[in-house]
Design brief:
The complex is a heterodimer of chains A (443) and B (426).
Chain A lengths: L22 E4 L5 E6 L5 E9 L7 H11 L9 H10 L3 E6 L3 E9 L3 H14 L4 H19 L2 H13 L12 H5 L3 H11 L6 E6 L3 H12 L21 E5 L5 E9 L8 H13 L4 H9 L7 E6 L4 E10 L3 H17 L4 H18 L3 H13 L6 H11 L2 H11 L6 E6 L1 H11 L2 E5 L1
Parallel strand pairs in A: 2-6, 7-11, 7-12
Antiparallel strand pairs in A: 1-2, 3-5, 3-6, 4-5, 8-10, 8-11, 9-10
Helix pairs in contact in A: 1-4, 1-7, 3-8, 9-12, 9-15, 10-11, 11-16, 12-14
Chain B lengths: L5 E4 L5 E6 L5 E8 L13 H8 L11 H7 L4 E6 L4 E8 L3 H13 L5 H20 L12 H4 L3 H4 L6 H6 L2 H11 L5 E7 L3 H12 L22 E7 L6 E7 L7 H15 L5 H9 L5 E6 L13 E7 L6 H18 L5 H18 L1 H15 L8 H6 L3 H9 L6 E8 L4
Parallel strand pairs in B: 2-6, 7-11
Antiparallel strand pairs in B: 1-2, 3-5, 3-6, 4-5, 8-10, 8-11, 9-10
Helix pairs in contact in B: 3-9, 10-16, 11-12, 12-16
The chains are: A alpha+beta (443), B alpha+beta (426).
C-alpha cells in the first residue's frame, strides 16, 4: 500500500455568501416579526420564540406539562382536528420549552403558510388544556422521566447543571416525579395566560416567500394576541470549580466525564477568541482532545468541548464517555490538554484551522431555510443583528494566538471547572479519589 | 421541481453524479461504496463499520488525522456511516475547497494506510462507540440489533452489524487489505458532487484525481433474499439498563427495487399509523387509551425507505410504562391494522399524509448534503439520481386501495415480535 506522495491541492478564491435580507416589523401588541426570502424548495420554516424564564421552583414541571399539551385543543378544534388541519397543508408543528424560552417550530409547504399562521394564532390565544389531556400527559411525562433518568448522558448533564447553577433555574432540567404529578390543568392555563404573550416574543419566517407579504400575513393572523410583558429570572451566580462529584452507577461499563465552567456570550468582545480556544482544544474532530484520548489512546469514541449559552449565562463544557478502566487516565489527559491550553499559545496553524472551521461552519448553518431560521432566532434573541454573520468571521480572522491564550486562561483552567463522573464508584472511586477530593452520591 | 443532474462513468468504472446549484458557496462530496453489514464475512461481525473507521487513518499521501484536518481547516465538516447495503463518506465544504475535497477522497480510494497500531486504536474506539450506543444505554440496540436475528435466518441479514467484541479483536491488517481490495474497487463506488461548482470543470478535476486509480474487478452483489415467515416468531430480551418495557414488531415487505409499486404503499402506511397526533396509532395508543409513551413505525431498520435493498422490513416499536401488558399494546396495534384493512381510509387521510411526507422530503432536499447523499444512493441502488426530485410525486401516486392492501398483509403469523423486559433496579 505505498504510493508516491501527492501534493494536497490548495484552496481557490472563496466566493463569499450573501447576507440574508431581513424584512421586519413590530406589531402593536409587541410581537417582533422577521421574514426572509430563501428559495430552494417550496417550503417555509417558522419559529415563534416566547420568553419563558420563570424563577419559581414549580415552573419546571408546569412548563413540561404545558409544552406537552399546548396543541391538545382550542375552543374551535380538538387535538385531532388541529393535527388534521396542519397536515392538510403539509405542515408540522412542535412545542418545546427550556429555561429561557418557549419555542413553537413550524414548517409547511409554501401554499400552507396562511393556514399555519391561523393555527398558531389559535393555539397561542386559545389553547384550552383539556383536563383529560393534562392528566394523560402528566402520566406519560412521569414514565418518560423514569426513562430519561436511566440514561447516563441525562444523569451526567443534570449533575453538571446542579453543580454549575445550584440556586438557579439553570441548575435543573429533570423535575421530581411527584412535582409533575402535582401539575393541574388550571395551573397550566394560568402559566399560559401569564407567559405566552407577544411583548418580547419573536417570530421568524424563512423560506420561499415574499417577505413584505409574509409580514402582512403574520400581522393579520396574530394582531389579536395580547398580554403584558413578563419578567425573566435574574442571572445566576458565576459557577466555580471545587470537589469532583462522583455519581455512582453500579455496573456501568463506561464513565461519563463532564467538566464545566463559565463562558462568554456572543455579544462579548472576547467571544471570538474564546470560541477559537474551544475549537482548538476540543470543539472539532481535528482538536487536541480528540487527537489525544481518541486517536492516540483509544479511551473514547466521541470526546468534545463546547460553548453553551443561556439568556443570562454562558458556559464552557468538556464531555467524554470513556471506558470504565481508563477513567482516571482520561481525567489526567483532559487536565493535561487543558493545562497546555493555558500555559502556552496554540500554533499559528492551529489558529488558522480553527478560524476557517468556524467561518465555514457558520456558512453551513445558514445554508438552509430551517438552519437560517435557527441562527437568526439565536442572534436576534441575543440582541445581535444579522450583520453578526459578517462581523463574527472578521473578529475570528483578527484574533491572535495571544488573544486565544488570554481567553483560555480565563475559562479553560482546570481549577476553574467543576468535574462530574457518572460511573461505577466501586471500580473508579480509587483512581478518581487519588486525583481530587470527591463527593460521591447515588444516581 | 427538478435538478440539473449529470451522470458519467470513468474508465476505471467509478460512477460520477454531478448536480450544480450555485445558490450558496458550498459543495457536498459523497462517496458510496457498495458494501455494508450484509457483505461482511462470518467471524468478522462489525467489520464493514470497523473498516469505515480505518478509512480515516491516513492514505497514500496523507498521515493519520490529516484527512479530517484538511477538511476542517478548509471550513468544512465530514463523516461516514455504515448501513446494511452501503458504506458512505462525505464532506461539506466551502466551494473553494472543492479540489482539495476530491483529492482527499481519491487518495483513500487509491490506498488507505492501515497499520497494526491504527487497527488496534480503532478497535478500541469502536468498542467505546458500541458502549455509548448499546451496552451502557437503556434500550441500546433495541430493536435495530436485536430484531433482525428473529426476523431473518441467514448470516448476512441476521447478524449484529455493530460487531461482537471477540470478532472485532480478531480483525487483522490482512483482513482489511482483502476487504479493501474486494469491495473498495472504483467500479464498486459512486462519487456524487452537489452544489457550487461548474460540472465540466469538476469532471475534469475528478478525472485528474480519480482516473489513475487502477480498475479492479467489481464483486458481484449476491441476492440476500430469504423466504418470508409463515408463523409468528417470538423473542424476549432483558435489558439491565432499562426501567420500562418495550415491544417491537417486524414484518417482511416487498423488494424496494424489484417491486417498488408494492413497496411504496408501506412507506405511506407507516405515516398513516404514527405521523402526527391525528395518526391512527398515536391517537388511540398514546392519547386516548394511554397504553404507550411513544410509538414509531417505519419501513427499514436504520436507513430511509429509498436507501435499502431487499430484504427489509416494516417495523413498529412501542415503549410503555409497564402499567399494562405488552400483549395489550400489541392487541391494540392489531386491531387498528384490522380496522384499516377492513374499513379503509377516511376521507382526506391519504392526501394529508402524502402532503406531509412531501414536505419532509423537500426539507431534506434543501440541504445540499442531504440532497447529494440521496443522489449518490439513488445512483448506486437504482441508477437514477434524478429520482430525488421525483420522490414526492411517487409518494403521491400511492392509492388508498394500495395502502389498505398493504395493511392487510401485516398479520400476526407473518411477523417477528420482540419483547424487551426492564431489568434496571433503579
Amino acid at each position: 500500500m505505498t504510493a508516491r506522495a501527492r501534493a494536497v491541492p490548495g484552496l481557490t478564491k472563496p466566493r463569499p455568501a450573501k447576507l440574508p435580507t431581513l424584512a421586519e416589523r413590530t406589531l402593536g401588541n409587541g410581537l417582533r416579526v422577521v421574514a426572509v426570502r430563501r428559495g430552494g424548495v417550496p417550503m417555509v420554516h417558522l419559529r415563534l420564540r416566547v420568553p419563558f424564564a420563570g424563577r419559581k421552583p414549580d415552573h419546571l414541571p408546569k412548563r413540561l406539562v404545558l409544552e406537552a399539551t399546548m396543541t391538545h385543543g382550542t375552543s374551535a378544534h380538538s387535538r385531532t382536528e388541529l393535527a388534521v388541519a396542519l397536515q392538510e397543508v403539509g405542515a408540522g408543528l412542535s412545542v418545546s420549552t427550556d429555561t429561557d424560552r418557549l419555542l413553537i417550530r413550524g414548517e409547511s409547504l409554501k401554499s400552507g403558510v396562511p393556514r399555519l399562521l391561523e393555527l398558531i394564532a389559535e393555539i397561542v390565544t386559545d389553547a384550552q388544556y383539556p383536563k383529560a389531556a393534562v392528566v394523560g400527559e402528566v402520566s406519560r411525562l412521569q414514565t418518560q422521566l423514569k426513562q430519561r433518568l436511566s440514561q447516563p448522558g441525562e444523569i451526567a448533564a443534570e449533575a453538571l447543571r446542579n453543580r454549575l447553577y445550584p440556586e438557579h433555574p439553570y441548575g435543573r432540567d429533570l423535575p421530581d416525579p411527584e412535582d409533575i404529578a402535582a401539575v393541574t390543568a388550571g395551573a397550566v392555563r394560568t402559566l399560559h395566560r401569564r407567559w405566552v404573550v407577544p411583548p418580547g416574543s419573536l417570530l421568524i419566517m424563512v423560506g420561499d416567500i415574499t417577505p413584505a407579504r409574509a409580514l402582512d400575513q403574520v400581522e393579520r393572523a396574530l394582531a389579536e394576541w395580547s398580554g403584558d410583558a413578563t419578567k425573566p429570572a435574574p442571572a445566576p451566580q458565576v459557577p466555580i470549580g471545587g470537589d469532583l462529584t462522583l455519581v455512582d452507577r453500579p455496573g456501568a461499563v463506561q464513565s461519563n466525564l463532564r467538566l464545566g465552567g463559565n463562558g462568554l456570550c456572543r455579544r462579548d468582545d472576547d467571544y471570538a477568541a474564546l470560541s477559537l480556544a474551544n475549537v482548538a482544544f476540543g470543539g472539532y474532530f481535528a482538536s487536541r482532545l480528540t487527537q489525544n484520548i481518541r486517536e492516540d489512546k483509544g479511551y473514547t469514541y466521541s470526546p468534545r468541548s463546547g460553548l453553551v449559552h443561556g439568556a443570562t449565562a454562558s458556559g464552557f463544557v468538556v464531555e467524554a464517555d470513556v471506558a470504565t478502566e481508563v477513567t482516571g487516565p482520561s481525567l489526567v489527559e483532559i487536565a493535561y490538554e487543558l493545562g497546555r491550553m493555558v500555559t502556552a499559545p496554540i500554533t499559528s496553524s492551529e489558529l488558522e484551522s480553527a478560524v476557517n472551521y468556524l467561518t465555514g461552519l457558520l456558512a453551513l448553518q445558514t445554508a438552509t431555510q430551517a438552519g437560517l431560521a435557527g441562527v437568526l432566532e439565536t442572534l436576534l434573541a441575543d440582541d445581535l443583528d444579522v450583520s453578526w454573520l459578517r462581523e463574527h468571521p472578521a473578529a475570528l480572522a483578527r484574533a491572535t494566538v495571544d488573544d486565544v491564550l488570554e481567553q483560555a486562561r480565563r475559562f479553560l483552567a482546570p481549577a476553574a471547572l467543576a468535574t462530574i463522573v457518572v460511573g461505577d464508584a466501586a471500580r473508579v472511586g480509587e483512581a478518581v479519589g487519588a486525583l481530587s477530593p470527591v463527593v460521591t452520591r447515588e444516581a | 421541481m427538478s435538478y440539473d443532474v449529470r451522470r458519467h462513468r470513468l474508465s476505471n468504472g467509478l460512477r460520477v453524479v454531478l448536480a450544480p446549484d450555485r445558490s450558496a458557496p458550498v459543495v457536498a462530496i459523497a462517496v458510496y461504496y457498495d458494501v455494508g453489514w450484509r457483505s461482511e464475512p462470518e467471524g468478522r461481525t462489525g467489520f464493514a463499520h470497523l473498516f469505515e473507521h480505518l478509512m480515516f487513518q491516513g492514505s497514500a499521501s496523507l498521515e493519520k488525522m490529516e484527512h479530517a484536518h484538511y477538511v476542517m481547516s478548509s471550513g468544512g465538516t465530514l463523516n461516514g456511516s455504515t448501513r446494511l447495503d452501503y458504506t458512505n463518506y462525505f464532506e461539506v465544504l466551502p466551494s473553494n475547497a472543492l479540489e482539495r475535497g476530491l483529492f482527499l477522497e481519491a487518495d483513500r480510494m487509491r490506498s488507505p494506510r492501515v497499520t497494526e497500531e491504527n487497527l488496534a486504536n480503532q478497535i478500541a474506539v469502536v468498542k467505546e462507540e458500541i458502549k455509548v450506543n448499546v451496552l451502557n444505554q437503556p434500550y441500546g440496540g433495541f430493536p435495530w440489533l436485536l430484531l433482525p436475528p428473529l426476523l431473518f435466518d441467514t448470516f448476512p441479514n441476521a447478524h449484529n452489524g455493530y460487531g461482537g467484541f471477540e470478532d472485532l479483536d480478531n480483525a487483522t491488517v490482512e483482513d482489511a487489505s482483502e476487504f479493501f481490495k474486494r469491495y473498495y474497487a472504483p467500479g464498486n463506488a459512486v462519487l456524487a458532487v452537489g452544489g457550487d461548482m461548474d460540472p465540466d470543470e469538476t469532471l475534469a478535476l475528478i478525472e485528474k484525481h480519480f482516473a489513475d486509480i487502477p480498475r479492479r474487478k467489481t464483486p458481484p452483489r449476491p441476492s440476500f433474499s430469504e423466504p418470508g415467515l409463515t408463523s409468528e416468531r417470538r423473542g424476549e430480551v432483558v435489558d439491565a439498563n432499562s426501567p420500562t418495557p418495550a415491544v417491537a414488531l417486524g414484518w417482511r415487505v416487498p423488494d424496494p427495487l424489484g417491486d417498488m409499486d408494492a413497496y411504496l404503499p408501506f412507506v405511506v402506511l407507516a405515516d398513516i399509523l404514527v405521523r402526527g397526533d391525528a395518526s391512527r396509532l398515536r391517537q388511540r395508543l398514546v392519547h386516548d387509551e394511554h397504553l404507550v409513551t411513544d410509538i414509531s413505525a417505519a419501513v427499514s431498520l436504520l436507513e430511509d425507505p429509498f436507501d435499502v435493498r431487499d430484504p427489509t422490513m416494516f417495523l413498529v416499536t412501542a415503549f410503555h410504562g409497564g402499567e399494562v401488558a405488552s400483549d395489550d399494546v400489541v392487541t391494540a396495534i392489531d386491531q387498528e391494522l384490522d380496522r384499516l384493512a377492513t374499513d379503509g381510509l377516511e376521507d382526506g387521510e391519504l392526501s394529508r399524509i402524502q402532503a406531509r411526507i412531501a414536505a419532509s422530503l423537500l426539507t431534506r432536499l434543501d440541504f445540499i448534503l442531504g440532497r447529494t447523499l440521496a443522489m449518490a444512493s439513488l445512483e448506486q441502488q437504482r441508477q437514477d439520481p434524478g429520482l430525488v426530485a421525483g420522490l414526492p410525486a411517487l409518494i403521491g401516486s400511492v392509492t388508498a386501495a394500495q395502502v389498505v392492501a398493504a395493511a392487510a398483509t401485516l398479520q400476526p403469523d407473518r411477523r417477528a415480535r420482540l419483547d424487551l423486559k426492564p431489568g434496571a433496579s433503579r
